Amino acid sequence: MEKLDIEFLEKLEKLRLAVKRLRFKSSLGERKSPKMGRGTEFSDYRSYQIGDELRYLDWNIYARFEKFLVKLFEEEEDVEVHILLDASSSMDFGNPSKFFYGKKLALAFAYLSLSSWEKTTFSYFQNKTKEIIPLERKKENIYKLLNLLNEIKPEGITNINETVKKYASSLRRKGILILISDFLSSDFKEGIIYARYKKLPVYIAHIICEEEISPFYSGNLTLVDSETGEKIDLFLDDDMKIKYQKTLEKFLNEIEYFTMLYNVEYLRSITTIPIEDLILKYLRVGGWIK
């Protein structure tokens, strides 16, 4: 079984230095709130009111315009980051496997989140949540997560709907959900809609492998569903490959449309893209990190 190692953590440290800080978009969950003088990022001015602290007056503005204006800042609210990894049988496919790639991505998100002093929790699921690991704000817990990820094996069926619903229902504080999966589930939309109904920002990391994009098989085949065991006999020729490509394109377009409709952040990645490139280039461009 593919294993994560210390060398990957060293790469993550280089990422941390390059990224500086993990910062999710506030538009999904309204993480920021304007408060006077307590935040770190300047937002706006407003007129001085009786009771305002004098230290927040902008004396440069007063010297130039003889107006008493108070500085406002954006203060980030304390939220928790929840990383959910699909550990079902369908993830055990490809070279490298989707599951190994998902584990690396989960570890990367956890590392950056902990390095940004975010309260972080990791869990993995199949037909239901299997284990919940509180990483708190302790960066040293990344080694605990590393060891756990190396022990997990993909097996069983996926039930994203029930998993996300129950997980979202269990949260008592504001939280961000990062869902890592191949989304080869009977359905996943209801769970995500429920999370959005609960006003939780949802970030989807959709993992696919090269073998799914361009199947290299041909001729008489027996396809076996890795989760249900169902078998289908077919003859894979050029015409069938064209039909497959159209079906795949429809599947991907439907997910993208769904995420746009419900204001869900969506990232799709092929397992051949190095995690470091994904973090530095694609996530930064997409606004997932700063």
TrEMBL record:
Highest taxon, organism lineage: Bacteria
Q: Supply the Pfam families for this chain.
A: DUF58 (PF01882)
Ranges for domain DUF58: 44-247
What is the name listed in the Swiss-Prot or TrEMBL entry for this protein? DUF58 domain-containing protein
Signal peptide location in the record?
A: none
